[in-house]
Write the structure tokens for this entry.
Amino acid sequence: MPLKDVQIVSGIVAALAGAASSVAQAEPADPVITSYPSAAAGDGATINGYNLSRWAEDWSAYRDPAKRTDPLDSLKYLPLDDDGDIYLTMSGEARLRMNMTSNPQLIEGPEQRQDIIRLVGGADLHVGDHLRFYGEIAHGQLSGKNVGTPSGSLRNKFVRQQYFAEAKGRVGDVDLGVRYGRQEFTDGPNLLISQRDNNTIRFVLNGTRAWARTSKMRATLFDFETTDLGNGGLGDDVPDKNRRFSGVSAGFVLPSQWLGGSNLYFDPFFWRRRNYVGTWGGVVSPAVRYYAGARLWGNVGKVALDWTLVHQYGRFGNRPIRAWQAFAAQSVRLGTDKSAPRIGFHADYGSGGGAFGNGTLRNAYAPFGNNIYFSYGLFLTATNLIAVAPNISFQPIKGVQARLEYQFSWRDNVRDAVYRANYSPYIGTERVPGKAVSRIARAQIIYAISSRLTLTSRAEYLQAQDVLRAANYKNSAFLATWLSFRF
């Protein structure tokens, strides 16, 4: 790496380290809940009682007034009948964020500054043990410098972000349930499907989800349309009839005595994605893509792992689709305490090839994956990509979590382009030689000021390598800081 680039990366890391030292007197964050995780049920991780999907939270313990410590706790359990079987849980979030990006889209030019506000309010009505209704509205504001024309996921005056009805019950040892309406769906590997919390307005779908669960296994059936987000009021965020996502996700708790003691989950899945306006290589055509894969994740002693393998097949117009994705993240804890540092790496692969030809399309495609995993600035995605990233996570002081990472990226097929997070190609990269795409230094610090309030700083520096440089793309620095309050 050139000396100038080393100095830039060093400056980013030093700035974040300085931010951490300024909060050295912080109180420790509340401990992570260690019971059977909601993530294993396909609802995402719940930490300190909070989940990204607010409907996945359970605040019924606040039925006991003695467990409430402040007035906001009272909003988590509002009884509507004498017995308290009908109750309302209120939730909300306010997030203030600023992003700074040099050479946006890796094109030499003025820096971009995004000033972002997210406001979310939700209400969860429980009618006994078997029926509930959930509603959530959101506002997304974006201004700044050189922001272009923001999409509805970045700027949205008013949106019905989620609204659904749910019925559930128990037959023997099996929990059964069905949910219908607009909802977040995360039952699968995070790099394939996620809420995309990086956006101002999160990714939501419209349709039906049904499930059956026991303490050791589960299955989820779903059929959704995606949501076409507008920038205005409540009437312009509508189901997208051109894109449909359906399938089945399953999960099994593996025996804890395996590998000398473990806490592992095995999640096979089979999905179908239909897109009547699919685009590759400048060609628009109907596409049907199937996903057959599995995820193995959890802990074996001090080792944490998260491995996914998925085969994709189908048709793009009259052309066959044959693609693969493989994600492998692993780390080891350097000590007996749960807050001890962890070192590890992730190695990721998304096949490429055929987008600019007439034969088999080999470009991998995630339905709605978490792209910040590959680039905070959304410069890359797991299509025609090979990435390896060693990393370290540690707690420099109580209440602060830090992570440093350095990623090497190459393309899989030299006759295909390098792709941004929105799957648009870097024009010209399909015509230049070389495999090396970029090197990326990343740093993140999260300060848990309290269980409700967090401060996050995230920095990244992308150094263009052979392929991007040959196509005249530039280096880029990205910095984001945000304050998030939830109740």
